[in-house]
UniProtKB/TrEMBL annotation, chains A, B, C:
It catalyses: Hydrolysis of terminal non-reducing beta-D-galactose residues in beta-D-galactosides. This is Beta-galactosidase. The lineage of its organism: Bacteria, Bacillati, Actinomycetota, Actinomycetes, Micrococcales. The keyword NAD does not apply. Residues 397-606 form the Beta-galactosidase trimerisation domain.
Length: 675, 675, 675
């Protein structure tokens, strides 16, 4: 299914006029005109208004909002509004409230806490979605449907226990198969009745917290079940919408979000969308990773940036404002990586409750002469000028990064070796290295077709599913380069260890054997020396976990220099077929990861044109023979670099000539339409 | 109502002879004689003795204690003993036990944990108070009534939910008004029935903890409700006492205590009293702030220091003993700031349970030849010598500090900007500056009459109630100086943002406009340069939150030097009427606060006589034309300063002559009766 | 009762073939042959297999395992398998699941969490133990019985409340006696009915956590009750075994484990055994303390090392592998201190669940050519060569260390002074000093016969029971040296303070009086100068708690140099009878403890032969006139020392000659059979 049909990159975002007197709406639309805002996300938290009690629906508020938007020439992304239940619903049907990891049944409050195992929730959320779809399906303003909001979390109630058992029966069919998968002979856990199975929380298999479980199999399956169980609720509403409308349906996701395996959701989304609220201190490249992950959900189809703050967040401990130029820079970054929209949360500062200090386009005084509004208006003009030319364009990547929720979960709920590794942290480190090197890349699931890639980076791929080992071998066999690391290929789909030398099914590709893995507290390291013929040696550090490697056929690229395994390999490269398999045996510091990744890219001639300029981001989008080269300067100084291509910078109108230097200002963006 | 009638500053404190054989009592009274102890607080935890079951009262123990006290010539402050319920009561009526923030109903244990919504608790606590009042109302030893003990905490049980709904109906009358106050259109929270409302805890609106709520309005009102609900229980008992006695009634409070808004309690107390257990590491001035806050409850009427430890506490992680001289110094500090008593917890070390290592006048060996006892006896002699001359005297303050529980709660439960600000920490910093500068000051509620003050300091006054903005303007208009800060004047009484430029209703007085407020983690600062014509520039640092200020009419007194708002104002002064309104736009380090506060005081000629000597405390009490100047040396070295007045040091008997130096020893105290 | 009858030091450990196809068993036994493994611990977690439902027992799996073991010439230590209940049992009888400190009833999961107050658990665990004993009592492979596994933890359910009340009635007989013991007049806690008493947890007497209680008496008694209540379950099973077998019975303990007072268990064990999993960063000597504590349970009878990991643990945050030689070194350390076995957990890496990365003799690939296996096989050969010669041998100690769970609990649940002291930490420090000094020592309960010791070290003996004070005096009176410290002798058996000068009943022996004890945060210290005539002064630091000491008859050995008690004694020595009583008035840094301990040992000529070589461990075992001197090198360099005795190193076969140097390699071990 194509993306929503829009005349240009839609610009705008969450709009909640139901919280205001209608007199305020006039001021809103006057401001929207100033800022070229053409799309409004409406109704995300309106259930209490659209259904004031079980027997009454009142769509008049939505009607007024959507009609006014239409009259003012705006498009609407229309929400079903089910992300927060109304008070009457929780009071009447307490089972819609979740039971938390501590086993506590909650009562009414906050948002995003409905239990999707509750038949009452499913029935009522579907019904309200159906009413809204029925009423607004043909409305000319509506261009897309928005279900729920930032789905997530887990529930551990009795209803979930029952649904979990059904899910398990479907997965395992017999208890014998389940007992085998979970290795229940260990610690006398052999189940003899499905009803003996309870959700894994602090009252059952867990100790200390959600990552400390006595039975990894139970906990891993509960994460999978939870993903599917919440997805079912999304699908309920989507089915209801489909009774009346064929417009594209999405929900706003959170990209690098641990609790939901978005790869299981991908087939059910018409298009992907997400909310980009980077944590302070995380690298700029992490946002790029988020964009690529979202783009990877639908085989490279563009996605929507559904939310970002124009200025500041509110729920963090500290909520800095975005510095001048940064909102524009990050908006263009989203487009550079495949977004076909730039949307904000939200249009006007809330008056009260928990987001009253969350940034918005209009502040509490409603001013349009603030720095925030001026920057929004400037970007609006810029996007209007760019028009529709890059809508639907694709990223021509030859590098793939494997991202895998099963490995994330399995790695982090595992007892043993080191609790400090952290899947996300390691993925961000490997992606950062690729990003700094300017690799044009996709982030894909392990089931993706790898035949189009010259480099496949699969770090910390702890759990191997299906035929991924064979397909990675195939990448190398035909001349590609595969990179994997310590803690990879340790367990099968059931989280049981491979009964073979580490790294299990990747042993042939990597050409090594590991008999023991050491681990140390985070402040204790082992210096690693990296070397290639004809290059100076480089010293970096290993940390957390340390495979003691015996090379079988691989060559040694880096060695430990300390402890009883001093002199043994820390990084190896194995010639395999026409290509190679690299292995990094420890958690290298970022400079070590950079070194390895650049050697891998260089092997395939895939270093980007600006790989030597730190924090100068580059990527590419193509469509119908047109090529757009994005250059984004995340540095605080001006950059001059020679252009690898000739064309026109769409933002400044200036010509860019191959071989001649062009300038990118601090927080500046250049988008070259290549000639 | 006047304070209890005592012949001099009453000296003594908590006395629990019911824990001992009567033979020990003889030793107690012999020691009391040595230490000139003349007042005993009796019966604070005696409910299990006075009422061994629901149908039996046994006042014989109290009788023996009070009769013996009287026979020995001591006064008694008599407690109703309801601060800890007896085991039989909790077993028989489990609803008297509280439900905590986690939603857990407690069972019997500890103390201070009765739910004051429980009709059983209210009935039984009132009944035992009535019995005691009836029996001892006319007893010649009894001079005051002491209800409960260190009231506090919160309960979240079903009974509280019901009481909360009643309280809300009284406050808001209609659900529409409540929905508007709480801004419930946000996140689909519109209530359609009062019974849908539940207490705000971790099972409903909260996440992470008591300061993290999705609906500030609910949580803020729950704090107000809780204050009133506990107060009602105090009032129950007071009413019962009043049936038999007109003697003054108090309860021992905790001064800077977050959970109860003592300003709501003040009208119901005959006189204020509090327990002074400073935390190690807190500044000495924080005790002075506590004293002034308590004195401010009853319009400047003296209060009682109901408890302090002679030596050490027990419940802290580390419990240092008070160094030699410190107990005396801090006792005189209490008097200097308006205490008309010096009382200890307790007379004799407990034999067992949680306070067995809490300091007491007599240790486990019952010795009177210890350092602790000797210091107690010396102070007793000193107080006896001073007699009644300063009883009832007042503090002639021209500086007021606004202290406001609503702002405390609202600021700290708010999402957004910075979680690190901390109301108490900021209030302590501004008060510390005033204290070091020797300002004679009152700490008052926002509803207080401000017409007598030349300087009003209102830092972090986040929530504005009533006509406070107008009354602050009035202070300046008639020539006074008002000082306020970042995070002030942000929300109205319902915790909804003012829909105007920051600082809202204080915009006219401060002459500035703020469009955006930046925030940073605590270890990131912005250097601020402060300057006044004819003075050297001073560099300090801003932290946590940073208003980006546009001066409208104000002059710039300090500027930021870093980040994108370098060069913009960090401190401003606005001429207003005959006076001025100062604004501090960030959390300045202490030296910056000191600089601003001293300039504010200097503007009104209110710097104290010893403002240049750090930690040399000065304040004043006056009565009937007599004036007492207190000078307290919290330094470890001797101080010599010129006397601004002539008179006699009541403690040494030495003459003090204006213009001539006098000496204050380390931990020393000088109390000059001015001639 | 003697230890299990074995032909030599049994070698092997936990074997769980029930988790594997029988084809794997062949490989197991082939490996056992290579490693000289002759004893297998079988059945520790087999309940779900041996009893698949309430009415069915199936011992066929155990049968096959034990028969195969026997056929292969191995001995079996046979477990009853009750340490983890099967799922059907928890589902059928939810009362077998524990209620935690937070008051939460758990459901099925993890292990070690049966409530031993549950009649269902007691009935069913006893029944399965009886069945197993009945079936295998005469089996020729079985040499010992193993009940449960690492007993521990606490439960707070209603059944435990009822059992606690019964236990209290037996202890106190009358409520008056209980009220007196718990000092319930404090805080109105006087109980008038046994049923008013509830377990002390976060819902009743506790705040902040398990060490923060309002009533120490209740919490202390709950620890004692819990020890007895879990012990009863052990005894249930032992009684069932005794119906069929007279073989020795044990359970694997955890040595320095806070939750169970093993001294109360000791009479019920036929022999002691424990699992040695040292925490990274703890000193090597802590393992020696564990061994000595276990040996002390049965009056010096050797114990079994029931578990240790051959390589790494799994449940820690970081799980380093044991460095080369370390597994052997620590195995010999166990023997040196009285172990008559060397056993591992486990034979083969688990395939899945929480211990899949826990080290084992065979890794997931089942290899015997790994470093881990090679070291295991080398040690097996060494042990085989040593044979039976030192089985049953004893440690000829003249130094006793008092270890006391009552003091551990009482000290750490007490409010007051400092929460940072830590009983275990202090005991480890005093033992470390003795260990470095090479003292041959016993670790004994306060009820032990002290008549054979020349030095008794009793640090932090907070609670004094029985006649221990008199018996310590007797040690000194007859010429011995007693060493005690701050925080000792503070409370009686009920945790009520002694109503006398500190250190209470030890005042005469120590010759001092303490009126006040200061305390400071851990980073604040007081420099202490230690001096003896003819020796240079030594400077160390006191920390945490600081008794202000007045010597009555004692001499001053060390003094504080700071704060108001500068110059007063920090360490004293009192001549008493023919001997002396030393007192250390603060928590000295390790070098200070070392200094004191060495002076105490020197007073009795008990410094070891290698006291000057750090980390060169020495101890002795004797039997039937044979003497074995163990020298273990925990350093990373080779050591050469003069031999104090002549004989033969059993491991190398080399002669050792008195007065001549011998060599101990890094991680090396020398076991001299003295001629």
């Amino acid at each position: 299914m194509p993306l929503p049909s829009t005349p240009r990159i839609p610009y705008g975002g969450d709009y909640n006029p139901e919280q205001w007197e209608e007199a305020v709406w006039d001021a809103d639309f006057a401001a929207f005109d100033l800022a070229r805002i053409d799309l409004l996300t409406v109704g995300v938290f309106t259930w209490a208004l659209t259904q004031p009690d079980e027997d009454t629906y009142d769509l008049s508020v939505l009607e007024r909002i959507i009609d006014r938007a239409h009259a003012e020439g705006r498009m609407v992304c229309l929400a079903t509004g089910t992300a927060a239940v109304p008070p009457w619903l929780a009071a009447k049907y307490p089972d819609v409230c979740r039971t938390d990891f501590e086993g506590r049944r909650h009562v009414y409050g906050v948002r995003h806490n409905a239990c999707t195992s509750s038949a009452n929730f499913r029935r009522l959320s579907t019904a309200v979605a159906r009413r809204i779809a029925e009423r607004f399906a043909g409305h000319p303003a509506v261009v897309a449907w928005h279900i729920g909001n930032e789905y997530g979390g887990l529930c551990y109630c009795e209803l979930c226990a029952a649904e979990f058992r059904i899910w398990l029966r479907e997965r395992y069919v017999t208890l014998d198969r389940l007992n085998d998968a979970w290795n229940t002979t260990f610690w006398s856990h052999r189940y003899t009745d499905w009803d003996q199975i309870v959700p894994p929380n602090i009252l059952s298999e867990h100790w200390r917290g959600p990552n400390h479980t006595a039975f990894q199999g139970v906990t891993l399956d509960y994460h999978r079940f939870n993903t599917d169980n919440i997805l079912r609720s999304f699908q309920d509403e989507k089915d209801a919408i489909r009774e009346f409308s064929d417009l594209p349906v999405t929900t706003n996701m959170m990209a690098i979000y641990r609790h939901l395996d978005y790869h299981r959701w991908a087939p059910h989304l018409d298009f992907a969308s997400w909310d980009n609220y980077p944590t302070d201190g995380s690298p700029v490249s992490r946002m790029a990773l988020g964009h690529a992950l979202m783009r990877g959900l639908k085989d490279g189809q563009p996605f929507w940036l559904m939310e970002q703050t124009p200025t500041m967040t509110a729920t963090r401990d500290f909520n800095p404002v975005k510095r001048p130029g940064v909102m524009r820079l990050w908006s263009w970054q989203a487009i550079a990586h495949g977004s076909d929209s730039v949307l904000f949360f939200q249009m006007r500062h809330s008056r009260g409750a928990s987001e009253k200090y969350h940034g918005a386009i209009l502040n509490h005084a409603g001013r349009t002469d603030t720095r925030a509004f001026r920057e929004v208006a400037q970007l609006g003009a810029e996007l209007e000028a760019v028009g529709d030319r890059m809508l639907g364009s694709r990223t021509p990547a030859r590098v793939a990064v494997l991202f895998d929720w099963d490995s994330w979960w399995a790695l982090e709920i595992t007892d043993g070796h080191s609790r400090a590794v952290g899947y996300e942290k390691q993925m961000v480190a490997y992606h950062e290295a690729l990003w700094q090197a300017g690799a044009v890349l996709d982030v894909v699931p392990v089931g993706a077709d790898l035949s189009g890639y010259d480099v496949v980076v699969a770090p910390f791929l702890h759990l191997l599913r299906g035929d991924i080992a064979a397909r990675l071998e195939e990448v190398a066999r035909r001349g590609g380069t595969v990179l994997t690391t310590v803690m990879s290929a340790r367990v099968d789909e059931d989280d049981n260890a491979f009964l073979m030398d580490v790294p299990g099914p990747l042993g042939a590709l990597t050409g090594i054997r590991v008999d023991e893995t050491d681990s140390l507290p985070p402040d204790q390291t082992n210096t690693v020396v990296l070397s290639r013929v004809g290059e100076p040696e480089v010293r970096t550090r290993g940390r957390h976990v340390f495979d003691v490697v015996q090379t079988q056929r691989a060559e040694t690229v880096g060695v430990y220099t300390e402890d009883f395994y001093a002199g043994t390999p820390a990084v190896t490269r194995n010639a395999f077929g026409e290509g190679s398999g690299w292995y990094v045996a420890t958690c290298l510091d970022q400079d070590g990861v950079d070194w390895v990744v650049r050697h891998v890219l260089a092997e395939q001639n895939l270093l980007g044109p600006f790989a030597d300029v730190r924090d100068l981001e580059h990527t590419t989008r193509v469509i119908d023979g047109r090529r757009y080269e994005f250059v984004l300067n995340h540095r605080s100084d001006q950059v001059r670099v020679p252009a690898p291509w000739s064309g026109t910078d769409l933002l400044s109108g200036r010509a860019v000539v191959a071989g001649e230097e062009f300038v990118v200002e601090p927080t500046g963006v250049v988008v070259v339409e290549v000639r």
